[in-house]
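dumping this here before i forget
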Amino acid sequence: MKRLVGLMVLAASLALVPLGQALAERTLRITTQLPPNHELSQNIAYFKELVEKESNGALKIEIYDSAQLYKGSEVPQAVSSGAIDMGLVLVDEFAGTIPVTAIFGVAFMFPDYETLGKAVAPDSPVRKLIDEEIRKTGARVLWYLDYGPIQLLARRGEIRTPEDIKGKKVRVLGKPSGDFINALGASPVKVSGSEQFIAYQRGTVDVGMTGTTATRSRKIYEVMESITITNHAQTEFLVVISEKTWSQLNDQEREWLTKAAWGAEQKLRASTEQDNLDAEKWIAENTKMKVIKLTPEELAKWKEAAEPSVQAFIKDAGEVGAKLVEEIRKLH
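structure:
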């Protein structure tokens, strides 16, 4: 009898607990290679805030920043294997096993923010195709983190035409940008983001490749004379979650994560364009670096010269890559 009364009291007490607290608490871990003050780290912190608020604390997010657990290149395998629940990763890190993910680095595939926005919209065939290919590895894309377009920088003088970099050594981010530079008759040299300043300062490369926000934050304007606004490639990061973790979540938890992920993605994408434009303006007004804007005619020459690099991507990515290029060009 006492046991029955005890069970009745317990049931009554549970009925008074809000839904989020009534569910068993769960904690998910996410790894990033960036410091906590970085824009992308702040976006992940915002995601954590949304998840914990929406779930009333039933679902918690633990962030391990600054590569405490994994380097960026290690994230795809760590997430796919289930060694970590979630991870921030540059989309290019998947390119070794999934060639289509290199599309954001293919020259002039996304000539403006409008085209990029359409391509990565949740219902876009472009995004669905990329996400499905990544899911086959055991990782599911939660949201895209836009870090802005890539420009060309000159150590000496300025760059206006493809001929201006012919025969020179150019910093590249990966194979697609390397194919682009090869098509222009220059020599690609892979240099990591953190090593850019020294590479430019020492003359390891003659031409740089990075965004306006990085040019400002990494003080690259101190060692390069000009920046040409080509917007020839895009920097996209992803937050992926292990399929093993996803399969263990209930419908309510998945809903909380999906809603928070979309909120974080919208917040970042809304500010990225302005952040890059503000950085461009700051460079022009506060440094000795010359900011070069190309005319439509000059830009057309760059696009024409880059076409062999598009074909190189299609060759690497096969039929899926060809379909992806076709879908993106419909958006131009």
